[in-house]
What we know:
The structure is a homohexamer.
Chain A: H1 5-12, H2 16-25, E1 37-38, E2 46-57, H3 74-79, E3 85-90, H4 102-110, E4 115-118, H5 125-130, E5 135-137, E6 149-154, E7 158-160, E8 163-165, E9 170-174, E10 177-181, H6 186-208, H7 221-233
Parallel strand pairs in A: 2-3, 3-4, 4-5
Antiparallel strand pairs in A: 1-5, 2-6, 2-9, 7-8, 9-10
Amino acid sequence: MSLTPELRAALAAVSSATIHTILLKQGIRRTFMTGPQSLTGSTDRFVGEAFTLRFVPAREDVATPASWGNPISTRAAIEEMPAGVIVVADAMGVRDAGIFGDILAVRMAKRVVVGLVTDGTMRDRVGVLASGLPIWCAGIAAPSSVNGLTFVGWQEPIGCGGVAVFPGDIIVADGDGAICIPAAQVERVAKEGPEQELFEAWLVGEVEKGEKLPGLYPPNEENKARYAAWRAKK
Amino acid sequence: MSLTPELRAALAAVSSATIHTILLKQGIRRTFMTGPQSLTGSTDRFVGEAFTLRFVPAREDVATPASWGNPISTRAAIEEMPAGVIVVADAMGVRDAGIFGDILAVRMAKRVVVGLVTDGTMRDRVGVLASGLPIWCAGIAAPSSVNGLTFVGWQEPIGCGGVAVFPGDIIVADGDGAICIPAAQVERVAKEGPEQELFEAWLVGEVEKGEKLPGLYPPNEENKARYAAWRAKK
Amino acid sequence: MSLTPELRAALAAVSSATIHTILLKQGIRRTFMTGPQSLTGSTDRFVGEAFTLRFVPAREDVATPASWGNPISTRAAIEEMPAGVIVVADAMGVRDAGIFGDILAVRMAKRVVVGLVTDGTMRDRVGVLASGLPIWCAGIAAPSSVNGLTFVGWQEPIGCGGVAVFPGDIIVADGDGAICIPAAQVERVAKEGPEQELFEAWLVGEVEKGEKLPGLYPPNEENKARYAAWRAKK
Amino acid sequence: MSLTPELRAALAAVSSATIHTILLKQGIRRTFMTGPQSLTGSTDRFVGEAFTLRFVPAREDVATPASWGNPISTRAAIEEMPAGVIVVADAMGVRDAGIFGDILAVRMAKRVVVGLVTDGTMRDRVGVLASGLPIWCAGIAAPSSVNGLTFVGWQEPIGCGGVAVFPGDIIVADGDGAICIPAAQVERVAKEGPEQELFEAWLVGEVEKGEKLPGLYPPNEENKARYAAWRAKK
Amino acid sequence: MSLTPELRAALAAVSSATIHTILLKQGIRRTFMTGPQSLTGSTDRFVGEAFTLRFVPAREDVATPASWGNPISTRAAIEEMPAGVIVVADAMGVRDAGIFGDILAVRMAKRVVVGLVTDGTMRDRVGVLASGLPIWCAGIAAPSSVNGLTFVGWQEPIGCGGVAVFPGDIIVADGDGAICIPAAQVERVAKEGPEQELFEAWLVGEVEKGEKLPGLYPPNEENKARYAAWRAKK
Amino acid sequence: MSLTPELRAALAAVSSATIHTILLKQGIRRTFMTGPQSLTGSTDRFVGEAFTLRFVPAREDVATPASWGNPISTRAAIEEMPAGVIVVADAMGVRDAGIFGDILAVRMAKRVVVGLVTDGTMRDRVGVLASGLPIWCAGIAAPSSVNGLTFVGWQEPIGCGGVAVFPGDIIVADGDGAICIPAAQVERVAKEGPEQELFEAWLVGEVEKGEKLPGLYPPNEENKARYAAWRAKK
């Protein structure tokens, strides 16, 4: 997936909630990652191509501090990250090992990584927050990654929060969490998403005016016409 | 249960923690819903009669966006909600489907629903918070309800957070979460609750003065007398 | 373990993340408690000798409000707590019973308890926060301890958040959570910890300057020399 | 759904595994109940219309032995069961309460109930097995239903093992567990199922002869033709 | 609790299911251990006074093979076990550490231990079965206890499968699992239990004759009289 | 790892329990897979080099029946399996998708695969058992793999049952379950294992004669000498 500036801008205006609905209407339901939530509580939205990291469980003979210097290591992976990506790390939901701390977060920020999404945890809360890197994770834990995880590679297909993520898929993360748009669906989402957001804004306005839900959402013919008229004036 | 203004006011002065203790002394232990917590972190307290909603798991042939227009739908249920109720939604603890988003939250607020309690999640964090509806839930997820749930009815007995809730029970929700007062226990709670709160306030004061716990809480005869004297002056 | 003021001061300068790494290098991995997190979200760090509390599951004939007056009770345990300890309560991860509320929290604060760590929950959020006692817990629940727990003793070996804690071990709790330093490891941690923190501060500085990770962390010979030179100037 | 003898016979020849594949090809994935397994380990297959039972969590004021005599009780429900149904009980996966023991199992067998499926547990293992009623459950537990459950009704939509079941759906249970065929899909399954079983029998035969998988399953044109020839001779 | 031969014999005739019902009618619900099931699948019943063992989580500095020779060790505990007890081991539900293997099982059998109940797992399936010791456990795992557990003592209050067990309580284990009778309730159970079993046997007989459930179980006045007449002839 | 016939024979005489203890003494604890158990309940032991399979979660656009014909498919992987391996499949513990049914099990048996280990489930219980392939799995489920899983590759590092498994590691599976011997540890295990089994056999014999545990296991000097004498006669 080549994420053009136009696609990036279009997606930045579409909530993860709306994206999920568009994909569900295509029969694709398993796209929202359960577990990762914004570490700061921010509701800002970020968009990027997925750059995947993969861990397997720790084994004491291979998951050691010495392994951090291996050719296959999180350090090496970080140096391969292009600017603009969102890193998605498959930590198998492990909660007793922080996959990254301040040093690696700072380096990712330096490499202009847009954000980090993981179903695992981070460590060094203070330092990680200071890095400014936008992070969606399942919590904080003091131990280093090797306490519970062995790093095995990058840019492979992974699972994260119950969702299959392939390199080239597009990630959108906001105040509801992180969603994976399959590469083949990105143009559809970029096209339908802003329209759907507009319709929902109209709906909220109608409800605020006191309209009842039945017939409004989903709309009956009358309300479809009312919306079309409103839409035409935009 | 008819929740008179007097009962409502009395209960508003009793914490969910104190309510639980009063019910436990009656042998009723399973009344506190595990999972729902205030979405905003507010510690304000709300009281209302339970209006129940019931979901079963999603099945792709029935849990569809088209189902939102069915006669049995969350939309229809919302239009049946009387002012002053607290909605309790049995989402079976499902975490990958937001039961409601901004549009429905705004409509519930319009209908003067007092609050919403669910063991599931909400979607559209930004819009839901903007609605002003007080919400106790188990988290946020971008997908719509049909991703994980099929709506099947309202004002039926349900389970929520491990607690049986019947229409007519009274819900109190505050900074500790949400508790269900069986309808037959409401008058007792409204009567004993404020007294218990007064006693606990006295206890905190005594402990702040440096009193030791044994003999004070639970109180021995001497401390019962001291409290009685203090109480008499109120 | 006698926690001298010197040891206490040294440990206060070492993050729980760094402590874990030092212990892991000794082959001791299971020291970080999964579940307890700061109730206020504070990232302040606290250090104290472990004072342990032990619960077993509730049984309706023994876990009663009347049991609060027993010789073996949380009240009695609190009166045995020396100043300066961190209380660690084994609540077996139970989420439907708050182990302590405001009254007991205020009393612990009066006794100059440094903090409370539990894999269970607290109750009376408002009152507990008002007590000022630093707390790491797994959440908030309105029910009292006897709803889910029977208190059976203090200063025994316990498990908390998946970690074995013995009286005399040292607890450090901060923004990442709570870690247990086995008594025999405290001097090592107090000695190596501040050095490691210094090294990591240098690393962060280097990365902020744009240094790449491979060769830097872990350091190759060149970077070891650069750090030694920097360190020598401190 | 009217389950004719013809449909019943056709479905009895189709494995739950094959049924799932047929439904999945229609986009209906969530039909297999996770949890219920044959209590005896039998691999026999049973077919029946779903007769649903619904429980909510226990509450000590309503979930009592006295409640067994209520108009809404498991006893009353059993007397409403027509011959030939498979009872599906939504026990919310609760493991500390046996929904039925020997007495009720014997009564269901007397009423010519075909089988019982639940995501909860049974009690009185010896007596329940002696009843001869085919049972798929998630285990055995000594406590009675009221220990963990409150019975609230029958022939309502329910969830069981993560699957939505509506009265009128058809249940097939065998050595792999229990599956729910939505009423609208029964004829399709009864028609396609036996064909699919025939094809799979041919496949197993081919593999036993030493055929490789690629090109065989799924079949390429050559193998489709070979199968068609084999099929024509049947 | 002194378990006289008379009490032992009386309890041996009462199922764990019936015991639970008797205790529940006293308001004591949490007595059945969730997790332990007969390792052989036997439905034989065993009765004994509880002899408790307590584990906390493993920590690599103390949970070592060398610790097996400590004064506080499972070996030392076994040598303290009186004949006739049922050992109940609190393994906190840990599934990756077998608390005992063949050698210790054989030694317990030699000491005329009646049975072993744990919410953890056993190791050495073949050898443990060969020992003939009746065992209720939550599964089998190859690792030794120190892989996940640290042994800390015996004859202390413990939790097992969600139930509080105190030394002196009586354990009954059969085909439904294991239940704890609080010491103060043993005489009641021994007295009411056999009567209840007789009544249930009559009920099963009536249902087998074709009686309907309502009015029979629980019995109305007519059926109470019929049972009384039947009972009088016994 | 080249698994010579000598190594294979040596390992076949060592239980998974003993293997775990030998590895634990090397500081390697996480080697036993939690979840997989023998499908037939057999206690036979099998040894083979690990051949790994990797799944990620299902996504409806890629996990389809059509995907079974892809170049990267379980079918293609099976045709790559050398004789004598034990297949280890990372199914992430998913329980609602059987990774293989009868057709693929028969093909694996044809390819002289020694066994299959997975933390997921199998489907087609009857057919899979008929294939004769020894299987350790976490249960049975009717749905096909694509219901919950997407197959992504073979002979990669994986996690299975909480254990890291690399191609070339050696798997031993028996009545206790399945363990992974890191390639670098195989010779040690093959050498020490049979000796340890002999020692344990002697221990069991001593305990059966009535020996007490303290001083015997672990052995004191006297018992070490007694064992040495016994060993010398073998």
